[in-house]
Amino acid sequence: MTEPETSPEPVRPLSPRREALWRIIFLSDTPAGRGFDVALLIAIAASVLVVMLETVPDIARNHGDLLRGAEWFFTLLFTLELGARLWVCRRPLRYLGSFFGIVDLIAIVPTYLQLLVVGTQYLAVVRILRLLRMFRVFKMAHHIGEAGLLLNALRASKRKIFVFLLAVMTLVCIEGTLIYVVESRANPQFSSIPQSIYWAIVTITTVGYGDMAPVTVLGKVVASIIMLTGFAIIAVPTGVVTAELGRAMRVDNRRCGECGWKGHDPRASHCLQCGEAL
Amino acid sequence: MTEPETSPEPVRPLSPRREALWRIIFLSDTPAGRGFDVALLIAIAASVLVVMLETVPDIARNHGDLLRGAEWFFTLLFTLELGARLWVCRRPLRYLGSFFGIVDLIAIVPTYLQLLVVGTQYLAVVRILRLLRMFRVFKMAHHIGEAGLLLNALRASKRKIFVFLLAVMTLVCIEGTLIYVVESRANPQFSSIPQSIYWAIVTITTVGYGDMAPVTVLGKVVASIIMLTGFAIIAVPTGVVTAELGRAMRVDNRRCGECGWKGHDPRASHCLQCGEAL
Amino acid sequence: MTEPETSPEPVRPLSPRREALWRIIFLSDTPAGRGFDVALLIAIAASVLVVMLETVPDIARNHGDLLRGAEWFFTLLFTLELGARLWVCRRPLRYLGSFFGIVDLIAIVPTYLQLLVVGTQYLAVVRILRLLRMFRVFKMAHHIGEAGLLLNALRASKRKIFVFLLAVMTLVCIEGTLIYVVESRANPQFSSIPQSIYWAIVTITTVGYGDMAPVTVLGKVVASIIMLTGFAIIAVPTGVVTAELGRAMRVDNRRCGECGWKGHDPRASHCLQCGEAL
Amino acid sequence: MTEPETSPEPVRPLSPRREALWRIIFLSDTPAGRGFDVALLIAIAASVLVVMLETVPDIARNHGDLLRGAEWFFTLLFTLELGARLWVCRRPLRYLGSFFGIVDLIAIVPTYLQLLVVGTQYLAVVRILRLLRMFRVFKMAHHIGEAGLLLNALRASKRKIFVFLLAVMTLVCIEGTLIYVVESRANPQFSSIPQSIYWAIVTITTVGYGDMAPVTVLGKVVASIIMLTGFAIIAVPTGVVTAELGRAMRVDNRRCGECGWKGHDPRASHCLQCGEAL
């Protein structure tokens, strides 16, 4: 989402050829550039799909070689693309440091890495992040705006959320110990405190897999209390985000020159109090 | 809910008989019309019930023929009704294109379709949508208003929700891969990445069936992190809808006499567009 | 909670004895009255506990007679009490029609009913509603106020919630049918459409017992979509209640006589715009 | 979080040595003091970890003695520390009465207690609360502010939440009885009313372990109704907290010079209490 800030600064052309290539690769305001971007998006989606399908036993058994081949093909393609990007853009290092530069890099590394460490190729799924490019390609400016609004709200609440998560972590540690003390004797599922803390997290987030559940009467009483408190707790992050979003959507700092009224509707061109033009 | 916009325009009568029939079928301001609508609602509810009961083994075994008979009876009834509607209304095609016209059509198609494709008749359940007519029949204008308010809020948040769902989808893909890498060796349930993504969705939405659950220590740690993040994430859509609803409910309906701007702050005494006193 | 409205109107004493008794039973402003009410609350709590414990096999086996005895004792006690209430209050029928009158009645009926119908005595649990009296006994006026605020917010959102539940009901019917068509062949759990609708409700409310879960690939895809939509849907009731509560807590209709500003803080005694006293 | 209020009052030094020690132990504005606090935090985290690992069978089997040793080492360390705190601070009893004093005490008691009562040592996990000190050590003033905001919102909603929990408790008792009456005959899981109430809590909080689930048709109908109502109910605490947070964030900190009233509307230009210009 942070693409706008990290978009390459207006560049002074080096050679016409690289200039043209740069326009194709980095912008999508020309038919060629747009075509390139769309093709890229398709390739990305396809490559992610390949990585995923590779892990499905039946498919792997029948088309394993094909998938591995496609996987390598896409990786080499993306390697070439990244090379081209670095070659044509004026500050390669700065691009590599940008959000999309990093994503481009970690999108190809895993496939090479598997030659050294087995099982790492799946991490290539992160290249799904490259799809975020589509926001620019499809001129989803509005959506970028909305995303920005959401991100701002989340950023504004990040401290509150952090404090909240800290409190929840402390809480689950204590609750997990409590249930362990109460339940462990009768119930092998609660074999240790860490295990019980895991249960407390599953419970307080209302996920409730049911792979662990109290069996003793006292355990169920404790669990009930934990659930009901969790019920009130789950309200906090929602409240935080909502309040921040509401503020983000409401905020407008213009003050009326006439009557000094503040807090106008962002759409207002005149003071709602005295009718003076803002 | 969109019934109001798509309600048939005031028609100039063709023949008195069709005029009378039209009034009975499309309006419910006469005893006959009201009776027709109520009977129709009952028939719809009954037919939906029939389709559902048809799938209950015991009932199907004992009253299968009866149910199939009823099913066909209702279908023919609704076919006749649709025919009548098209015959009496002045712009049949326009009606067919309207929300209720489409619903009327897809409410009868499945039963006929099953003659060609087996198992499609159940789709006849969609005729439950026809019950939305009751809003008009029972003059639930207020409820239509409320529904409109909700729909507006949802419509206003649709972009944010879309961006949010996109982010969630990306997130679950990465989280699913992560848990797959961590868990798959020890746990046959996480047999593939798509499978693991399904688990991630079940977890982040806090549904938590428990048909899949991590068993390794590392897996449980990752799961805990996913749950706690999901805990913060679940706040976003609520925040969005709440903020939009709050705004929708804060705005009032006064229209500026000068510039016709609508949606002023309830406290406003002057138009925020042109400054004219309200 | 609606106790305040339904509290007995100021009565003109009939006989001093009944007057005194009335004061003890209906008010709690005298030591006797207060003692009576507290004792009553304890008796109610105890009787509810008895009814519940009666159903616990072990306890029932060992102390069955004792519990049944206590149960009858409490029932007779409450019968006497209700009789006394009707005898001392000036408009017995009106009291019987009030919220607490009805509760008093249905609190004793089940025990007698079990002589005719077996297994109805458990319904005596409803007498727990009588505990609401404590709000008055313990002068929890503030809490009544808060409760009123919550009730008002819920009442204000009742239409929206109704429309919402209607929409959800329609949705689960269609989703249930969908999953049935997709899943039923491979998965005996989805044996019928009503069954599948039950699953859809369990899923969309994020309860997710796991007693039913899709096993086919397509089924899991459909389930994922249902969960993600449910994720957005769960936001609606919260949004509604929050918006209503926020309004209920914000609202104040005083308009400044000087500058005509409206929407002051309920605590304000002076206009926040021009400083004029309100 | 309440640390600020309970921080030791500015003390007049007794002896230079104790004064110096006091500065090291209670403040973290000197290298020594900061070092002490950081070391303490690490020790606390380590000791909590030890207590938890002690309960993991495999680890306990292999390193049991080591862990028990560490456990005792940390406990003695914390005992010494508490002793030092009491020795250097001017009002030992007042410190013991403060939030952190109490936590310091209950952080060491369990380990000693296990000499008398077996299995109590796990309660030593509560010493995790001592980590709250880090807020002061790391000068996380902002976070304390945010935490305060959250706490205020929770405190402001505490009455509403209490009333709400009371209502929920009443509700689950009645719903639990209902499901018991409906389900118990066919389903051994619903063996008693308390058991069924536990299920109702698991359901209404949308945790849904699945260790208990209705099997009869009627039971599933009742469960569906409970879930859908719970769906609306879950909205209330969120609504309360959100509304309170929104208000808490809307209020600003200007204090009226005239009457000292605080908590004005951000748009206010005059005190809402005495009308003085702000």
Write structural notes for this entry.
The structure is a homotetramer of 278-residue chains. Chain A is mainly α. Chain A has 2 domains: 16-139, Four Helix Bundle (Hemerythrin (Met), subunit A) (Up-down Bundle), CATH 1.20.120.350; 143-249, Helix Hairpins, CATH 1.10.287.70. Chain A has 12 helices and no strands. The longest helix of chain A has 32 residues, at 57-88. Residues 1-9 of chain A have low confidence and may be disordered. Chains in contact: A-B, A-C, A-D, B-C, B-D, C-D.
User: What name goes with the CATH superfamily of the largest domain in chain A?
Assistant: Voltage-gated potassium channels. Chain C
Total DSSP helices of chain A: 12
- As a percent range, the share of helical residues of chain A equals 55-70%
The backbone outline of chain A, from C-alpha atoms, is flat
N-end to C-end Cα span of chain A: 33 Å
Number of strands of chain A: 0
Largest interface: A-B, 65 and 59 residues
Q: Calculate Rg of chain A over CA atoms.
A: 27 Å
Order of helices and strands of chain A: HHHHHHHHHHHH
Given the helix and strand composition of chain A, which structural class is it?
mainly alpha
Q: Could you please say which CATH topology of the largest domain in chain A applies here?
A: Four Helix Bundle (Hemerythrin (Met), subunit A)
Question: Largest beta sheet of chain A, briefly?
Answer: none
Question: What fraction of the residues of chain A are assigned to beta strands by DSSP?
Answer: under 5%
Query: Could you list the spans of chain A in which at least 5 consecutive residues all have pLDDT below 50?
Result: 1-9
- Please state the average pLDDT score of chain A: 80
Level-2 CATH architecture of the largest domain in chain A: Up-down Bundle
